[in-house]
Amino acid sequence: MAASPASHPTRFAIQKARGKGWKTLEVGEELPHAKARFETMIGVNPRAYFRLIQLDYNAEADYEGMEFNWTLIELYDPTQKGVRKPPPAAKPTRGKPRDPSRPATAKGKERVPLPVRFYLAVILIGLLVGGLAYLRYAAPGR
Questions:
Q1: Cα radius of gyration rounded to whole Å, the chain
Q2: 61: Cβ–Cβ under 8 A, 6 or more apart, which residues?
Q3: Count of CB atoms within 10 A of residue 14's CB?
Q4: Per-residue pLDDT tens for 13-24?
């Protein structure tokens, strides 16, 4: 990776998982300060997923100054104990590559219970409010 020019220093970002993506909470230029803020954010919200990444300027980007290459420095997973460092570069796996035309199998999917009672309660309340509004304002014979 080429060194970034002096006008574009390496930056460090702290991100929090939001839905299917990540929201950037803070960007700084010093790694020790970023690590300290990362630990503080974990202490404030220990149930959230956080990651500390390094942002390097991408000189080959179409939008100059708007695109960066990033590298994972630390990942906090609340289901694991402590902060985890990224694993070393993975070795290439041997075996048959997956056919991209076939969808991925759902072997390890976790079952998530639906809040059926909550949905039924909302529908019932809606029907009651609708019925009362009908009787009050649109009932025939008034």
A1: 25
A2: 67
A3: 25
A4: 999 998 888 999
pTM listed for this prediction: 0.52
Q: How far is CA 106 from CA 3, 100, 103, 109, 110, in A?
A: 42, 15, 9, 6, 9
Token pair, residue 3, equals 């060194």
Tokens (6 digits) for 136:
């009050």
Number of Cβ within 10 Å of residue 122's Cβ equals 11
The amino acid that residue 46 corresponds to is: P
Instruction: Give the largest CA-CA distance in the chain.
Output: 83
Q: How far apart are CA 106 and CA 116, in angstroms?
A: 23
Token pair 């010093």 is at which residue?
30
